[in-house]
Design a protein that fits this description.
Elements: H1 3-10, H2 14-22, H3 43-52, H4 64-75, H5 81-99, E1 118-129, E2 132-143, E3 149-155
Antiparallel strand pairs: 1-2, 2-3
Helix pairs in contact: 1-2, 3-5, 4-5
């Protein structure tokens, strides 16, 4: 197909078609610089308040509403409550980690050797079998390594497994 046909078919400009023909992978998107917010001049003030609250008793710590009112009254800030709440919600855990009072979030993967661990559980289950409700025992078995599971309903009264019906 010609470039013009590709432009019409996909609804793009000739520059986009040229870029696609030159490289099979699209160019990575450009990162935009962070935009300035009305809260930027007051972020240091909020951080100081949150750091001071680390040593204060729990009942004396600043709530977000108190931080917002302090910014407006003491510093003449022209910001909304929602912006302050959003910033404090994200910044408070970071300050706790920086101070060493909270652990870094960590992920510890579980490792299971093949055939070494399994989980077994029993329970009651009611199934409709041949048009009538039958209460059965349910045997549930799960291998920890592969995650494969086996479930077997067994009739309470006669001990018959309904594997084919399940």
């Amino acid at each position: 197909m010609s470039m013009r046909e590709l432009e019409r078919k996909h609804g793009v400009t000739w520059r986009t078609v040229r870029k696609a023909l030159d490289s099979s992978w699209p160019e990575p998107r450009k990162k935009l610089p962070p935009r300035a917010t009305p809260l930027d001049p007051y972020k240091m003030v909020i951080d100081e308040i949150l750091r001071a609250d680390l040593d204060a008793p729990r009942k004396q710590r600043h709530m977000v509403t108190r931080i917002f009112h302090r910014l407006v009254e003491e510093h003449g800030a022209d910001v909304s409550y929602g912006v302050v709440r959003y910033y404090v919600a994200g910044r408070k855990p970071e300050i706790l980690v920086e101070s060493g009072k909270a652990p870094l979030e960590a992920f510890v993967p579980q490792t299971h050797l093949p055939g070494h661990e399994a989980e077994v559980d029993f329970g009651d289950v009611t199934v409709r079998l041949g048009g009538e409700l039958v209460t059965c025992y349910l045997f549930s078995f799960r291998l920890s390594y592969s995650g494969k599971a086996v479930h077997r309903p067994v009739d309470r009264t006669i001990g018959v497994s309904y594997v084919s019906a399940w």
